[in-house]
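Data availability excerpt. The first of two example chains:
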Amino acid sequence: MALQTVSAGPAVVLIVEDDWLLRELAIELVETAGFAVVEAGDAEEALAFLQARSDIAALFTDINMPGPLDGLELAHVVGRRWPSVKILVASGGLRPTPAELPPSCAFLEKPYRGEAVIAHLRALVDPSSTLTGSDCSHRTRVREEGL
């Protein structure tokens, strides 16, 4: 069953990943879970989508990206300018502390399992999901091979 937004369509997730293959894998994973997807290759492209669209419910971004803003900086900008957009940040290199993350932002260490991504997105977008907000806000480390 697809997650629903107020507009009665699936919740829209903006996926920001500079690695084309990882972005395509994330898109397939998120769409299969019933979300609608908008994709961007960097923070500037993501900000353009956010300015142009009012239906984006969640941001799923990598931290390490080329350009003037990395994913962590993007998360902070989104948290300030679009506070209703929920944020999930992932990285295989950087490990931000909770103080370095925007409020109500979840973090996943790479490699992550697809199930962890979907569980976090559902918890962020749908507060009635089984993963609670407090479970979602702390770091999740998954040692199994994933995306």
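And the second chain:
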Amino acid sequence: MTITPTNPLANDPINHPKHYQGYATRVECIDVTRHLPFALGNAVKYIWRAGKKDPDAMLQDLEKALWYLRDYERSTYKGPEAFTTALAVFVTIHQVLIVNDDPMWPNRMTTIEAIVSGSLWVAHDEINGKINELKATKGAN
């Protein structure tokens, strides 16, 4: 599978917003989400941009991601076999990214991988863990 990056690495708020760009690569969030059902694509979108579009809105972005995961599970979840294309795309992209040094959320890519592979319970755990961490940090301030 060949991935053609959509991002010219320039911040174009309409065509290539910076908060949806990859890490040190020309891959964008849409390169993965276009292969997913709507609700899962939105969950990935909110995880991808969490803290990048607006650092103060990271908690809200993760709560939205969790909402979309739950919505998908309630309405259309058909099991992990429904994710073959999205997983293949993500694995290819992840091999290019190989980024696990995200200072805001080291498990961001692990969480996205869980969604595109159909392991939604893992994504729930990762998102809830980060939400709890953010709420604890916010309460401590």
